[in-house]
TrEMBL record:
Subcellular compartments: Cytoplasm
GO BP terms, alphabetized: sucrose metabolic process
Any GO molecular function: beta-fructofuranosidase activity
Pathway named in the protein's UniProt entry: Glycan biosynthesis; sucrose metabolism
Hydrolase recorded as keyword: yes
Protein's recorded name: Sucrose-6-phosphate hydrolase
Keyword Cytoplasm in record: yes
EC numbers, comma separated: 3.2.1.26
Reactions catalysed according to its record: Hydrolysis of terminal non-reducing beta-D-fructofuranoside residues in beta-D-fructofuranosides
CDD domains on file: GH32_ScrB-like (cd18623)
PANTHER family: BETA-FRUCTOSIDASE
GO cellular component annotations of the record: cytoplasm
Length: 496
């Protein structure tokens, strides 16, 4: 079958003279470029890939289309760090020049095998605007950082019977000396599944079957993307990005959403006994997260702080999206929590602290900034509605509001001039037990806010594109409220 051609399927090697330099110069002028979040110098990024702490360094790869803020030929871009906060940009790791990856080096994960980093990924093949196939491929990073594609790629050619061409995003794990590859897949009846291959060397794979994930996902779910698996606190956890979930109460309001599933995996019988599954993050811009083991074997996560099918205000500057900050996962009271990785404290520069006491119907500005961390301790909560406004100016603001009557928290980004994504609504919310005290931790970085409530019990990941003057931080309450706060200016962690 002939392959599909379209201008957006070209690699960085096909760049015209000065094309990349011009793209870089243009997007460097943007006021919205994050300072410590991994972001593209130009073009569009999406999923984090191949995450690893390998040979004393953290490696983050991520999906990248260089030429515009659109989804085109995907490369694997690469950054590394010794401390998880200061990132060095490295040359692009995977450029899809081979036949087996003719329409992009799609997402995948890494595993250390015999002192080398095995980076598994999907070679995307397109025969038309819709028709496609997929190959599962391998690239290997040596101790010295050299990356080469495996000579006998693809490891797995095409898709198994019973599935459409939507089979991708390998996550490989090792259990009792055997290797297992989880893949997101679409059944021929157009519903989503996770399928599994097995291997005894990480190279030669055979199809094992479909994972019997005993979830009652609705039939509207037509694809499961980016499956991730790990063990934490004696539980097995799957994190996966289903497409086709419909809004349900406070959940699943984005076009695509992310869930985590707690339970027990039996890899021999391919069953996963589900205890519970829940939405992982309540924000507007969070998708395709991937986890890996940190320095002390803690479970770390990066996500794509973005969403498909939505136009973002930075698109006109020819760059789009960033990754989340790294987060440390835990299971507390039967729920997965996400906390900022402890390494982020190294970014702190000047710190200030203060305390405000609010009375009925008042609000107070406690500071301003565009690149900071904020820790808030609310106490003596006598208000029904109270909260925090970020990116605040006379006419703008991102509003986080707690409601003690309803026992909910909501985030509203309607009051911003560069409003976007409104077709999916401007408000996200969650249930939350609100007593007399409450803890909120916020990371703001020019065009992103990540809000962690009660040590990561509820998290909102959200992009915001404020005007120059919208930098204020405001606390408001309709009754009594005490708030103690600390604000830390944060350093630059990655070049623009
Ligand atoms: C998720 C995803 C993956 C795919 C990649 C392509 O955002 O669609 O399933 O591998 O992005 O960029």
């Amino acid at each position: 079958m002939t392959r599909y051609t379209e201008p957006k399927y070209r690699t960085i090697f096909d760049a015209k003279e000065n094309e990349l330099e011009q793209l870089r110069e243009k997007s460097a002028k943007s006021p919205w470029k994050p300072a410590y979040h991994i972001h593209p110098q130009y073009g569009l990024i999406n999923d984090p890939n191949g995450l690893a702490y390998f040979n004393g360094e953290f490696h983050v790869f991520y999906q990248w289309y260089p030429f515009d803020a659109m989804h085109g030929m995907k490369h694997w871009a690469h950054a590394k760090s010794k401390d998880l906060v200061n990132w060095e940009r490295l040359p692009v790791a995977l450029v899809p020049v081979e036949d087996y990856e003719s329409h992009g080096a799609y997402s995948g994960a890494a595993l250390e095998v015999d002192g080398k980093l095995y980076m598994y990924y999907t070679g995307n093949i397109k025969y038309g605007p819709v028709e496609r196939s997929a190959n599962q491929c391998l690239a290997i990073m040596e101790q010295d950082g050299t990356i080469t594609k495996y000579d006998n790629n693809p490891l797995i050619e095409g898709v198994p019977e019973g599935y459409t061409g939507h089979v991708r995003d390998p996550k490989v794990l090792e259990k009792d000396g055997r290797y297992y590859m989880l893949l997101g897949a679409q059944r021929e009846n157009l519903t989503g599944a996770i399928i599994v291959y097995e291997s005894d060397n990480g190279i030669d794979w055979s199809f094992k079957g479909e994972l019997n994930l005993k979830l009652d996902l609705p039939d509207s779910v037509y694809m499961l993307e980016c499956p991730d698996y790990f063990e934490l606190n004696d539980k097995d956890v799957i994190v996966v990005s289903p497409q086709g979930l419909k809004p349900d109460g406070h959940d699943y309001h984005n076009i695509y959403n992310v869930i985590y599933v707690l339970g027990e995996l039996n890899i021999d019988t391919l069953t996963f006994e589900v205890e519970d599954y829940l939405e992982l993050d309540k924000g507007f811009d969070f998708y395709a997260p991937q986890t890996f083991a940190g320095k002390n074997n803690e479970r770390l996560l990066f996500a794509w702080a973005g969403m498909g099918e939505i136009d973002y205000p930075s698109d006109s500057e020819q760059w789009a999206h960033c990754l989340s900050i790294p987060r440390e996962l835990d299971i507390v009271n039967g729920k997965l929590t996400q906390k900022p990785a402890r390494e982020l404290e190294q970014l702190r520069k000047d710190s200030t602290a203060g305390e405000v006491d609010l009375e009925k119907g008042s609000s107070v500005t406690i500071g301003s900034g565009e690149q900071y961390e904020l820790e808030l301790d609310f106490s003596k909560v006598g208000s029904t509605q109270f909260g925090l406004e970020l990116f605040a100016s006379e006419n703008e603001g991102l509003v986080l509001e707690f409601d003690r009557m309803k026992q909910t928290v909501s985030l509203n980004r309607e009051k911003l001039a560069a409003a976007f994504g409104g077709e999916y609504g401007f408000v996200r919310s969650s249930e939350l037990q609100i007593g007399e005290t409450l803890k909120v931790q916020v990371f703001v970085d020019r065009s992103i806010a990540e809000i962690f409530i009660n040590d990561g019990e509820v998290v909102f990941t959200t992009r915001v594109f404020p005007k120059e003057e919208s930098k204020g931080i405001r606390i408001f309450a309709d009754g009594k409220l005490n708030c103690r706060y600390q604000k830390h200016e944060l350093a630059q962690g990655i070049s623009i």
